[in-house]
Amino acid sequence: MTAPIYLSVVVPVYNEEEVLESLYKRLTKVCDDLGKPFEIIFTNDGSKDRSSEILKEFHNRRPHQIRVIEFSGNFGQHMAIMAAFERVRGEVIINLDADLQNPPEEIPHLLEKYQQGYDYVGSIRDIRQDSFFFRSLPSKFMNWVRRMVTGTRITDQGCMMRAYSRRIVELMSQCHESSTFVTVLGYSFATNPTEIRIRHDARTEGESKYGIYKLVRVTFDLFTSFSMAPLHIFTVFGFFVSSLSGLLVVYLLLRRLFIGPEVEGVFTLFAIAFFLISVAIAGIGIMGEYIGRIYQVVRSRPRYLIREIIEDLSEPQVSSVNKRTAK
Ligand code: UDP
Ligand code: MG
């Protein structure tokens, strides 16, 4: 009988050929040093570069510890993580980005906190090493909006490097939503969550896969998955504006009766009308975001497609280095 796996590390990969080798070296070193059985699951999210071949090669180097899920297209970081979460064997699951912005050396710190009895160890990026105007500032703003809208007390929702208990990951795997936000979904199942500060390095190779548009899409996923607040805001605003416009109609009627016909204020009315029309269009858009997601769920198509899984589940083991030192 082989020892059960203690740690599963989950890494989504999308066009990361430049960083994979140094990620492999640093990650396997950290995991080896733990001295406990572990597995690393890479999900290749439809990369168009050499990532796929590199990951296969990693599996050949350590067939019992490295598993590779090959998607047949680009289904997004959160789906890549969920596909791995559905297959983990470890007692603790740690997720990190492939680009080395989440240093693998922080894994022992997350585990240390986990062992103190927390079932969800979140993370706060110590220094944001991204460009201030294009990533840090929007990300700070998004974090604030997300906290307000979703009502979760996660300080830094965008930092994916976190530790989850197996129980949480199993519950997450039972949710078959096609658009979700992993960190918040996990938090919603946690019974004893906590957060620690972790280092955040600059991306040295490759570039961010998130432009402003993708960032906005992901934020919509987050709002619609965890909150109805955008809809409530529109309802409340709608009632408020209808009451105001009711008063305006009465006021204009009275002026018509007592002062007579007048053309003044026509442009103000235009401005008000344009404003309200644009608000209505935004409202329809927000409703559409929800309806689109309901449609996706109703169609119940698979939320991601796997081309191939490269794994050897026969023998989970501690690395040979540790076997030797353990004796
Ligand atoms: N990623 C992915 N699919 C995507 C976009 C990104 O699997 O469609 C992975 C990417 O390879 C990386 C992680 O998600 O491991 C975070 O992406 P990135 O570093 O580009 O995001 P940022 O750090 O800029 O928020
Ligand atoms: Mg990154």
From TrEMBL:
<dbReference type="InterPro" id="IPR001173">
    <property type="entry name" value="Glyco_trans_2-like"/>
</dbReference>
<dbReference type="GO" id="GO:0005886">
    <property type="term" value="C:plasma membrane"/>
</dbReference>
<dbReference type="Pfam" id="PF00535">
    <property type="entry name" value="Glycos_transf_2"/>
</dbReference>
<keyword id="KW-0812">Transmembrane</keyword>
<feature type="transmembrane region" description="Helical">
    <location>
        <begin position="266"/>
        <end position="291"/>
    </location>
</feature>
<dbReference type="InterPro" id="IPR050256">
    <property type="entry name" value="Glycosyltransferase_2"/>
</dbReference>
<dbReference type="InterPro" id="IPR029044">
    <property type="entry name" value="Nucleotide-diphossugar_trans"/>
</dbReference>
<keyword id="KW-0448">Lipopolysaccharide biosynthesis</keyword>
<keyword id="KW-1133">Transmembrane helix</keyword>
<keyword id="KW-0328">Glycosyltransferase</keyword>
<protein>
    <submittedName>
        <fullName>Undecaprenyl-phosphate 4-deoxy-4-formamido-L-arabinose transferase</fullName>
    </submittedName>
</protein>
<feature type="transmembrane region" description="Helical">
    <location>
        <begin position="231"/>
        <end position="254"/>
    </location>
</feature>
<feature type="domain" description="Glycosyltransferase 2-like">
    <location>
        <begin position="8"/>
        <end position="169"/>
    </location>
</feature>
<dbReference type="GO" id="GO:0009103">
    <property type="term" value="P:lipopolysaccharide biosynthetic process"/>
</dbReference>
<dbReference type="GO" id="GO:0099621">
    <property type="term" value="F:undecaprenyl-phosphate 4-deoxy-4-formamido-L-arabinose transferase activity"/>
</dbReference>
<keyword id="KW-1003">Cell membrane</keyword>
<keyword id="KW-0808">Transferase</keyword>
<keyword id="KW-0472">Membrane</keyword>
